[in-house]
Amino acid sequence: VCLTGCSRDLLLKIDHICHQNSVKFFTGDVFGYHGYMFADLGEHEFVEEKTKVAKVNPGVEDGPDSKRAKLDSAETTMVKKRVVFCSLKEALAVDWSGEKAKAALKRTTPDYFLLQ
Q1: Which superkingdom does the taxonomy of this entry point to (predicted)?
Q2: What per-residue confidence (pLDDT) applies to 77?
Q3: 3-state SS, residue 116
Q4: How would you label 84-105 residue by residue, b for 16+ Cβ within 10 Å and e otherwise?
Q5: I need a labelling partner for 57 at 20 to 30 A (CA). Which of 18, 26, 50, 92 fits?
């Protein structure tokens, strides 16, 4: 489900329904130079391609080359990952009075507060 230009109450209601039924939910909007995008993908599984790390000279035990791992772009492995996304209600319900939240506030873009 993709929504744009909707009220906050409607966004929360539709996201709640989607979250309960394992339906992927996207919303976004633009206000002049500022905008937001939110995705609630529920439990999302994906495969990521990782480049294998190999030593340059496995026989050499000392020196700068033995300590530096090299990426072998010819050899890759597939790694399955799982991410659990939060609902829109949870994302907007941050308590900004705690110490942990105050530290995160410095790294939070002002665009986050467009929905507030």
Answers
A1: Eukaryota
A2: 86
A3: coil
A4: ebebbeeebeeeeeeeeeeeee
A5: 50
Number of H helices, E strands in the chain: 4, 5
DSSP 3-state of 102: helix
pLDDT at 84: 92
Q: Reduce the DSSP state of residue 38 to 3 states and report it.
A: strand
pLDDT at residue 14 greater than cutoff 60? yes
Domains of the chain: 2-55+73-115 (3.40.50.12550)
Q: Please provide residue 114's backbone torsions phi and psi, each rounded to the nearest 5 degrees.
A: -60, -35
Q: How many CA atoms lie within 13 A of 39 on its CB side?
A: 5
Give the pLDDT confidence score for residue 28 in this predicted structure.
92
Spatial separation of the C-alpha atoms in residues 89 and 9, rounded to whole Å? 10
Question: Which residue's structure tokens are 């294998």?
Answer: 52
Instruction: Specify burial of residue 3 (Cβ count, 10 A radius: 0-12, 13-18, 19+).
Output: middle
